[in-house]
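F.,

This is the one I mentioned.
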């Protein structure tokens, strides 16, 4: 792998991959032999690559952070070019990308693998309170470690777990850490002193009926109080109170709220498209995510743009498993017009239920 530092220079690549997460790594490895060496570049600013599905296990004390991180240089292929910068702007009409240092990169084929933004700032009072005792989240590596410490500390009171009213990385993760918390409290001998609450914006515990039935039974067996159509609006860390919007059947705020006291609050945060995507209306669907054909993952606006992973405006769950069955992009490179992508999503939960489902299938 060649590390390139650009200094306000123009450059051109046959294939430009934006993002070095699971999706970006997968496609950059797969397509390295489709173009001459040095003609595939990956734009990624981070020094380290985190295996984010492992954050739940870190929060539950089953893995160490050191087991879920590798140097970025070790996961990007040596034959590709690594542009260690951030994406600032997308200009699809010009087939170009502007990096954070002002460099302009042109491409023949663009693969957007930019993930999404974790938006703690969308909950009033949350961003500035993440360091405080009693507040945690497995959605960031340092906070995943803090989550385990919090679960080892709480001895009594209310433990509240949330799921936001936005698309989110692994919509089952907030539920999984709730089940792991139940097990940890039992092992510590304090479970009888702690009330567990799971508040979700959904009208049921999970949005696939087949799995919702089983998960509701599990929650009942574990004495977890589940509340539906609730979305975290704000917190008061001094009073240790969380305010939830009560949602309508259309998942919009009803104007009514409910206040819940917590001793431990685990937040599955709201998420949004990353800034370069959400500020490029030419690429967006009606919901503000990257508009792609659900079968090919090709942009519905630009033929030479494809997407993969969490940045997509598709209906599949945003999980790592969804990027493991990649059979696309060849439509552009090798003129195979009938290549399609089957979204197969898996969400493992405690005591091992694997929730596996595909596009538009309830069972």
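My design for it:
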């Amino acid at each position: 792998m060649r590390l390139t530092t650009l200094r306000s220079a123009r450059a051109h690549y046959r294939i430009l991959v934006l993002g070095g997460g699971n999706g970006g790594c997968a496609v950059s490895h797969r397509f390295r032999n489709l173009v001459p060496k040095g003609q595939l570049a990956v734009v990624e600013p981070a020094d380290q690559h985190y295996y984010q599905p492992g954050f739940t296990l870190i929060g539950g004390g089953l893995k160490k952070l050191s087991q879920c991180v590798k140097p970025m240089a070790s996961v990007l292929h040596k034959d590709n070019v690594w542009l260690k910068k951030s994406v600032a702007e997308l200009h699809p009409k010009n087939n170009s990308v502007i990096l954070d240092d002002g460099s302009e990169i042109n491409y023949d084929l663009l693969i957007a693998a930019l993930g999404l933004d974790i938006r703690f700032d969308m909950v009033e009072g949350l961003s500035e309170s993440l360091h405080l005792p009693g507040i945690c989240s497995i959605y960031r590596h340092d906070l995943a470690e803090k989550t385990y410490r919090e679960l080892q500390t709480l001895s009594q009171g209310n433990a509240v777990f949330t799921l936001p009213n936005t698309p989110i990385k692994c919509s089952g993760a907030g539920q999984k850490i709730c089940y792991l918390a139940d097990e940890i409290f039992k092992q510590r001998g304090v479970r009888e002193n702690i009330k567990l609450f799971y508040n979700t914006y959904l009208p049921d515990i999970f949005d696939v009926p087949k799995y919702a039935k089983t998960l509701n039974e599990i929650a009942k067996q574990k004495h977890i109080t589940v509340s539906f159509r609730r979305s975290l609006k704000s917190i008061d860390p001094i009073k240790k109170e969380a305010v939830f919007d009560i949602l309508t059947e259309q998942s919009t705020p009803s104007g009514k709220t409910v206040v819940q006291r917590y001793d431990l609050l685990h937040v599955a945060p709201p998420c949004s498209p990353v800034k370069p995507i959400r500020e490029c209306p030419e690429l967006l669907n009606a919901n503000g995510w990257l508009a792609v054909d659900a079968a090919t993952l090709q942009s519905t606006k630009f033929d030479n743009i494809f997407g993969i992973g969490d940045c997509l405006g598709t209906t599949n769950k945003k999980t790592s498993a969804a990027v493991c069955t990649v059979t696309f992009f060849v439509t552009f490179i090798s003129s195979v017009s009938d290549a399609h992508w089957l979204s197969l999503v898996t969400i493992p939960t405690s005591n091992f239920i694997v929730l596996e489902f595909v596009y538009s299938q309830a069972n």
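The radius of gyration is 21 Å.

Talk soon.
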